[in-house]
Specification:
Immunoglobulin-like; mainly beta; about 5% helix; rod-shaped; 6-stranded mixed sheet; about 375 residues; 2 domains
Length: about 375
């Protein structure tokens, strides 16, 4: 009899232990929390104390299954969310259709407070809290899917950005009632200063023109170099017209101005000269007809920098001005340029123009503006 009791006592002990273990198993609810994966925060600008957009990614192993499964993003001390009043309107919350974080994003509707089918998004100090809709159920955010949070002007309709802290490696942490946790690091660093110098440059050449036209007038005297205008023997039956091409190349930020002037009238001596044309640089005019004594110039630049910009070329062009001993504009550009301007020279005489050898010196001055 004692042996039977002893035997059944052992069986009872074993059964009791089994029941205790089973009770412990069913009494403990399986844990939902997990560690996020693929966490990263992409900044649009990592410069200290500078506004920046944030694009945050993470894969949630647990997902969001109820209205109480809040998600919090905590920025390290120094990130300034208050100065620019970052709010829900500066945020987007979206979910990928898998855990690859590569793009078929479904956007969630955000508001200041969660309501039916609408997520709440609120900022308090360093913490951004996303609260699921009041009717959220299992699969509001599917477990194993990638979440994307955009904060700043990268968000749809966003206008306010977070101000970066001082230089250093900073943390942005993921937590909340949904149970998953994660942490990201970003480096706030000063930009690399790159400096370089481009030397100022200017080339100015005067080239011969053999034939063709200048500002609508037909050239009948060929120039053979850039230093002379060989009118030859003038005639009362036809005016003599010659030209030069002025090539200007400069990297001056504000372009250049080229002026012309002569040192004296086209003359033999102090008592005998050819009259200047009646038109002026400010108000050029048609040249005198053959048989009338006159000497002047024209330019085909239709965008001069002073006065009426197209005064030489408007209305069909062929307008001329008298040289003076003061510099007057004949070519202009407001920006760096490489361009050619054609300058014309015209001379006419009358039957009473004194015989002799006439001369003058024309000077061009090209001034770049850096």
């Amino acid at each position: 009899m004692p042996k039977i009791v002893k035997k059944y006592g052992k069986i009872t002990l074993i059964l009791g232990l089994i029941l205790v273990l089973l009770g412990m198993y069913f009494a403990v609810t399986p844990a939902r929390a997990g560690s996020c994966t693929k966490e990263r925060d992409v900044l649009s600008d990592s410069t200290p104390s500078t506004v920046s957009n944030h694009t945050i990614y993470f894969v949630t192993p647990t997902g969001v299954e109820s209205s109480t499964d809040t998600i919090t993003i905590t920025f390290a001390s120094g990130f300034d969310l208050a100065t620019n009043s970052v709010a829900f309107g500066d945020m987007d919350l979206a979910v990928d259709n898998d855990g690859n974080c590569d793009g078929s994003w479904t956007d969630k509707t955000l508001a200041a407070t969660a309501t039916t089918n609408v997520w709440g998004a609120a900022v308090a100090s360093q913490v951004v809290t996303f609260t699921p809709p009041t009717n959220a159920t299992t699969g509001e955010i599917t477990a194993g899917y990638c979440v994307q949070i955009e904060i700043g002007t990268n968000a749809s309709g966003g206008s306010n950005r977070i101000i970066n802290p001082t230089a250093g490696v900073k943390s942005i942490d993921i937590a909340g009632n949904f149970g998953d946790t994660g942490s990201m690091k970003v480096a706030i660093i000063s930009g690399v200063s790159v400096t370089a110098t481009v030397a100022e440059s200017l080339t100015f050449t005067i080239s011969a023109v053999a034939s063709g036209t200048v500002n609508g007038a037909t050239i009948n005297v060929a120039t053979t170099d850039g230093v002379s205008v060989p009118f030859g023997t003038l005639s009362t039956s036809a005016n003599s017209i010659a030209a030069h091409d002025l090539l200007t190349t400069t990297n001056a930020t504000n372009g250049y101005t080229t002026t012309t002037q002569y040192n004296q009238k086209l003359r033999i001596d102090a008592s005998n000269d050819i009259d200047d044309h009646s038109g002026t640089n400010a108000s050029p005019s048609s040249f005198s007809s053959a048989g009338t004594e006159a000497f002047g110039y024209t330019t085909n630049d239709s965008s001069l920098g002073t006065g009426t910009v197209d005064r030489f070329t408007s209305g069909g062009g062929n307008k001329w001005a008298a040289f003076t001993t003061s510099p007057l504009e004949v070519a202009y550009s407001s920006t760096a340029a490489s361009e050619t301007t054609r300058i014309g020279y015209q001379a006419g005489i009358s039957t009473t123009t004194p015989a002799g050898s006439y001369s003058t010196t024309v000077t061009y001055i090209c001034t770049p503006t850096y």
